[in-house]
Specification:
Aminopeptidase
Length: 241
C-alpha cells in the first residue's frame, strides 16, 4: 500500500529573500523602487491639496465670483456656467500639478549617477524585486558609519515586515563591516526627506500636507533604533567580555 504524502500548503510559494543585487536587472529594479518613492509623495501631496476643505472653499468662492457674469439668463446660460466651473476646476488642478512638480524632478534624478558607489540590499519574492534599501559606508574621524539613503517597498507589500527585514539586513552588514553605528542619511542625501509646502502645514487646522510623511519617518527611525539597540547591544556585550 502506497501512502501519498500530503502536499505542503506552502508548496509552490516563492521564497522571500534579502540580499545584494546579483545582476544589473535587479539593481535597476531596486533603483526604480527608490524613484517611485518620489512619485508616491507627489501623488499623496496632490490628493491632499485637491481634496482639502480649503481647496473646495476656494473653488466655491471663485464660482461665486463669476456666477453673476455667466449666469444671467437661466434659459440659455447653464452651459456657460458649467464650462466656467470646469475651467476653474482645471485651473486649480493645474496649480496643484505645478506645486508638486519638484517631486517629479527629484524622481527623474534617481539614476546610476545618483547611486554612485553606494550599495544596495533588495528584497525579492521569487524573481520579483519588492523592496530596496540604498546605503553608504562613510569614513570619518577614524570611524566607519553606515548611512541609509533610501528605504522602500512596493506599496502593496507594506505592513508585512519586509521593510523591517531590509533594515535588519543592512544593520547586519554594518555590524559585519565593523561600523561604529548606522543611521538615516541627512535630508540632502536621503530620498523621501523632501517636504513641499511645509510652511503651510497646519494652516487653519485642516491643511496637513506632510503629516503622513512625518509619521512614517518617525516609525522608520523607531524601527531602526530598535534593531540597532538589539544588534549593537549584543555586539557590545560580547566585546566587553
Amino acid at each position: 500500500m502506497v501512502i501519498e504524502k500530503e502536499a505542503s500548503p506552502l508548496e509552490g510559494v516563492p521564497d522571500l529573500t534579502f540580499s545584494k543585487p546579483h545582476n544589473t536587472e535587479d539593481r535597476t529594479a531596486g533603483l526604480k523602487l527608490v524613484a517611485d518613492v518620489l512619485s508616491q509623495q507627489r501623488s499623496i501631496t496632490s490628493k491632499t491639496l485637491i481634496y482639502n476643505p480649503i481647496t473646495v472653499l476656494l473653488w466655491a468662492a471663485l464660482v461665486g465670483l463669476i456666477y453673476p457674469f455667466v449666469y444671467r439668463n437661466p434659459a440659455t446660460d447653464k452651459p456657460n456656467l458649467v464650462i466656467a466651473m470646469m475651467g476653474i476646476l482645471m485651473s486649480i488642478l493645474a496649480g496643484v500639478r505645478y506645486l508638486v512638480r519638484p517631486y517629479q524632478d527629484l524622481g527623474e534624478s534617481i539614476n546610476w549617477e545618483w547611486l554612485g558607489e553606494d550599495e544596495m540590499v533588495i528584497a525579492k519574492f521569487g524573481d520579483t524585486v519588492i523592496g530596496s534599501c540604498v546605503y553608504r559606508l562613510q569614513d570619518s574621524s577614524n570611524k566607519k558609519e553606515m548611512l541609509i539613503r533610501a528605504w522602500t517597498t512596493r506599496p502593496r507589500e507594506r505592513r508585512k515586515g519586509i521593510g523591517r527585514g531590509l533594515l535588519e539586513s543592512v544593520v547586519n552588514i554594518a555590524k559585519q563591516k565593523g561600523c561604529s553605528g548606522i543611521d538615516f542619511a541627512p535630508d540632502e542625501l536621503r530620498v523621501g526627506s523632501t517636504r513641499l509646502l511645509s510652511q503651510l502645514d497646519g494652516f487653519a487646522g485642516v491643511l496637513h500636507i506632510n503629516k503622513g510623511f512625518a509619521q512614517e519617518e518617525t516609525k522608520a527611525r523607531a524601527t531602526l533604533k530598535n534593531l540597532v539597540d538589539e544588534h549593537w547591544s549584543e555586539k557590545r556585550t560580547k566585546g566587553s567580555r
